[in-house]
């Protein structure tokens, strides 16, 4: 692993342990050349995934982009980082274990919507407004009506 501070090609692992989400290994490293200390995370990758965009273009799957999507939707929302990591890891595992090396971007969007619906209603609406390309206030009213109906079913109480 190359040192991010001095670019030295060799660093030493000082400590390894499972990360909080138990889907990766957290490694504390030190550079023998500059003394810099940093942390890396190692994940199992079952297969190389390729995302097929709406225009047909194929790009390599980027887990960090998926995390950024969650971060944007959940900005200033009270959701723990561990829950976000579990949701992202769950989506990646589902895609990797599907057996298909290629996945449609729309499918990833639906998986994110499903995960956000379970994490935070506001984040779900934020993501849905971009993903479903909301253009009018009626689009927001429609999704809020869906939530109100869902809440009424779950609690047995009607909401206005």
Describe this structure in words.
- β4 and β5 form a beta hairpin.
- The model has no long low-confidence stretch (mean pLDDT 87).
- It contains 5 helices and 6 strands, in the order βββββααβααα.
- The chain is an alpha+beta fold and 160 residues long.
- 14% of the residues are buried.
- It has helices at 63-73, 81-97, 105-119, 121-131, 137-155; strands at 12-18, 24-30, 37-43, 50-52, 58-60, 102-104.
- Helix content is 46%, strand content 19%.
- It has a 3-stranded antiparallel sheet with strand order 1-2-3, with no helix packed on it. A 3-stranded mixed sheet has the order 5-4-6.
- α1 (63-73) crosses α2 and α1 crosses α4.
- Share of helix, binned: 40-55%
Strand line-up of the largest beta sheet: 1-2-3
CA-CA gap between termini: 57 Å
Q: Assess the beta-strand content as a share of residues.
A: 15-25%
Which whole number gives the mean pLDDT?
A: 87
What is the total tally of β strands? 6
The radius of gyration computed from the alpha-carbon positions, rounded to a whole number of angstroms, is: 20 Å
Helix and strand sequence: EEEEEHHEHHH
Task: Give the CA-based shape.
Answer: elongated
Structural class: alpha+beta
Unreliable runs:
none
User: Major sheet: size, sense and barrel closure?
Assistant: 3 strands, antiparallel
Tally of DSSP helical segments: 5
